[in-house]
Amino acid sequence: MFAWRPRHIVARRLWIALARLRRFGVRTLAGLLRVPGRVRRAFVRRWRRSLQFRTVLITLVLSCVSILGVGVYLSNQIANSLFQERLTQAELQTRQSVSQVQETFDGAQVTDQQGVLKLVNDTLATLEARDSGTPRQYVFLAVPNQEQPRNRWVDSRASYLRTENDIPQSLRQAVEGSQQPQQFWESIPLTVDNTVHPAIAVGNRVSFGGTVYELYLLYDIKSAQDTLDEMQGVLWFGGVFLILLIGAIVWIVTRSVVSPVSHAASVSEKLASGQLEERMAVDGEDEVARLAKSFNHMATSLQEQITQLAALSQMQQRFVSDVSHELRTPLTTVRMAAEVLFDAREQFDPVNKRSAELLYNQVERFQALLNDLLEISRFDAGVARLDVEPQDIVAVVRNVVDIAEPIAAACGSEVHLYTRSAAIVVDMDARRIERVLRNLLLNALEHGEGKPVDVFVAANADAVGVAVRDHGIGMSPSEAARVFDRFWRADPARARKTGGSGLGLSIATEDVKLHSGWLQAWGRPRDGSCFRLTLPLHAGGTITESPVALEPARAALPLPSGVTRGIVVGTSALLASAPARSAEDDGA
Fold first, then answer.
1. Nearest 5°: phi and psi at 130?
2. Helix/strand/coil (H, E, C) string of 301-336?
3. Contact at 8 Å (CB) between 581 and 566?
4. Least enclosed by CB within 10 Å: which of 217, 330, 380, 520?
C-alpha cells in the first residue's frame, strides 16, 4: 500500500476545519472591533447588568463550541467511512480488472501490428465505466528505461482527456520501483468538465510482449463528495437549529428564575428609598415562592424596627430639645448670679474668690454646651437652614485668626496664614463657616503644644480649601476616623485648656454638609494633625478636587517666587510683611 493512509486524510480535514474556525474567529473579532463605540458600550452595559443575557450568551457560545467540535468529528468520521468504502471498492475492482487484462495479454496470439493494437485498445476499453456510480478511466504507460526491447507497436494509452500528468509523480515512482506485482493508490484531484473532482488513482504493473507497462485506474468519487456535502449541510442545519433551540430553552428557564430576582431587586430599591410598604408577590409553593415569603417577612420586620427606631429617635430629639429649652431659664438666672459673684470676687477671702471664679467658668462652659445641644437638636430635626451670601472667605479666616490671638498667646503658639489671593469670594453662610474655622483653629492651638499653627487658603476653578495644620501631639489614623463623632475624645484623661463641649467638630461637620462640602482630618502621632475644609465656590456646585492637600508631605501651598502675600500673626503683633512659607519650609 502506498504511504498515504486514511489517517492523514482525517488529520488534513481536521487541520482545514481548525483553520476555518480560526479565520471565523479572526473575522468575528475584527467585526466586533469595527462595531461603533455606542454599540460596544451598550453590549458591555447589558453584559454587566443582565444575568439572563449573560447566561444565555455564555450557553450559546459553549453550545456553539461543543456542537462545532461534535460536527467536525462526525464530519470527519463520515468522510473517512465514505472514503474507505470507495477505496476498498476501487482496490477490489482494480485487482480484478488488472488480473483480466494480464490474462488477456498473456493469452494473445496476434503477431501483426493491427492485431496487437486492436487487442490492446479493446482490452483497455473494457476498463472504462462512465455510467456507473463511480466513473472509472485509465492511463496506460510504458515503464521507462527497460532492459528488454520495448514493444514497438504499443506505447502509452489513456482514456479521453486523460494524460500521464493526471498521475502524481510519487505514485508513479512507487509503481515503477516495485519488484513484484503490487497495487498502490493515492487520492488525487481530477479535472472533469472544467471542474475539479476528488478521485482515487490505483496503480499496477502489467506486461505484454515482454514489455512492462504501468496501468492506472482513476475512480471519480464526486458522488461520495456530494453525499458528504449533503450530510454536512444536514449537520450544519441541525447544529444551527439545535443552538437556537438551546438558546430559547435557556432564555425561558433563566427568565423564570431571573424575573423573581429582578422583582426582588426592584422591591429592595423601593424599600431603600423609604417605601417600606412594598412587598414581593407570592405565587406557588416552590423555592422562589419561599424566597418571596422570607423577603416579605424580612421587610415587615425591618419596617417595624425602622418605625420603632424613628419613633425613638424623634423622642430623643424632642427630649434633648425640650431639656435644652427648659434649662435656658434657670441657667440664665444662675449665670447672672455667677457674674455678680465673679465681679465681687476681690472682696472675698481666697477660698470664696476661687469658688466664684470656678462657678463663673463652669457656668460659661455649661452655657456653651447648652447652645451646642440646641444646635445639634436643630440638625437632627432637619430644621437647620443656610443663609447663603457671597462672602470673602479670606476675610473670614483673618477675623478668626484675630479672635484666636489671645488664646494663641496663652498657649505660646504663633498662627501663620498663607494665601495666594487677597480675597476669595464664596457662596456661603459666613456665620457657620466662621464657627467651623474657629473650632478648627482653637483645637489646633489646644493640641499644638506651643508650636506654630499654619493655616493655608487656596482656590481652584470649582472649590476653595482651608487647611489648619498643627505640629503638636497628633493622632493615629484610627483616631482621625473618629474625631468627628459626638463627645469623642482620643484621651478621656486629657485636660482641656480652652474648655469645649465635645460637640464642636460634630457641629462643624453638619455645617459643612449643609454647604455640600468636605471636612477631613489627618494625623500622625507626635507629628501633629491637619484639618481640611473644602467648599464649592458657588451654591449647588460640586467638588472634584480640593485645592489644598491634606497630608503634610503635600500640604504646602506653593507660592511663586517673590510673592509675599502670606501674613503671620504672632502672640503680640501682626507682621504684614513677613515672607510666605510652605509646609516643606516647616519640615512637614
1. -95, -25
2. HHHHHHHHHHHHHHHHHHHHHHHHHHHHHHHHHHHH
3. yes
4. 330
How far are the Cα atoms of 180, 430, 457, 555 from residue 512, in angstroms, in the given order?
105, 12, 16, 21
- The amino acid occupying position 99 is S
Place of cell 472667605: 393
Burial class (CB in 10 A: 0-12, 13-18, 19+), 221: buried
Going residue by residue through the chain, which has 588 residues, state the pLDDT in tens, using 9 for 90 and above.
Answer: 333 344 455 565 656 666 666 676 666 666 656 656 777 788 788 888 787 888 888 888 898 889 888 888 888 888 888 889 999 999 999 999 999 998 998 888 877 888 888 888 888 888 887 766 778 999 998 888 777 656 667 778 888 888 889 999 999 889 888 877 789 999 999 888 888 899 999 999 998 877 888 899 999 988 888 888 888 888 888 888 998 898 889 888 888 878 877 878 788 888 778 787 788 777 777 777 888 888 888 888 888 888 887 777 677 667 666 666 677 777 777 778 778 787 888 888 888 888 888 887 777 777 777 676 666 666 666 666 777 889 999 999 999 999 888 888 888 888 999 988 888 999 998 888 888 898 899 988 988 888 899 999 999 988 999 999 999 888 888 888 778 877 766 555 444 444 455 677 877 888 888 888 989 999 888 888 999 999 998 888 888 888 998 886 544 444 433 333 333 333 222 223 333 333 333 332
The cell for 468 is 489648619
pTM of the model: 0.47
Asked whether 486 and 506 are in contact (CB, 8 A), the reply is: yes
β-partners of residue 393 are: none
Alpha-carbon distance 205 to 202, whole Å? 11
The C-alpha cell at 421 is 489671593
| Sequence letter at residue 304 | E
Which contacts qualify for 269-274: CB closer than 8 Å, 24 or more apart? 271/299, 271/302
Question: What separation in angstroms does the CA of 156 have from each of 125, 186, 191, 204, 215?
Answer: 14, 21, 20, 15, 10
CA distance 216 to 34: 54
If you count DSSP H runs as helices and E runs as strands, how many of each does the chain have, helices first?
A: 13, 14
Q: To which residue does cell 447663603 refer?
A: 388
Residue 333 Cα distances to 59, 337, 356, angstroms? 81, 6, 15
Closest CA to 173 of 148, 198, 200, 203: 203
**Of how many residues is the chain composed?**
588
Cell numbers at residue 328, please? 435656658
Residue 142: Cβ-neighbour burial (10 angstroms; 0-12, 13-18, 19+): middle
Within 8 A by CB and 6+ apart from 165, the residues are none
